[in-house]
């Protein structure tokens, strides 16, 4: 399977992926949605900043899923992974707000990061606000 992770451009995390400072991508949800139970070791992840083309490819090396009981548990989990996920030990107010009151968290460890020739995708059918896409092959949504 191939996956597209759409990143918040203002958090400036894509450069950290390329430098090797970010080796984990986390997603926090109210409900079990993709990539929950859809991502496996060996799958490819393509990263793009919102509004920009895909520029990075990596390979999944480990997946950890959490059912979150309360905000304290969420903050403890995020603090444990913050250096690998965000490239920083300090959680900003934006990050704390992002993970607050979520029921599920998934931490995707990745390796074999490489820059790819930029390309656009067609998100039709996934929803305008969708920030994670799972497809059989990236070629199915890659624009010509």
From TrEMBL:
Q: Which InterPro entries match?
A: PUA-like_sf
Please report the name of this protein according to its UniProt entry. Answer: ASCH domain-containing protein
Record the organism. candidate division WWE3 bacterium RBG_19FT_COMBO_34_6
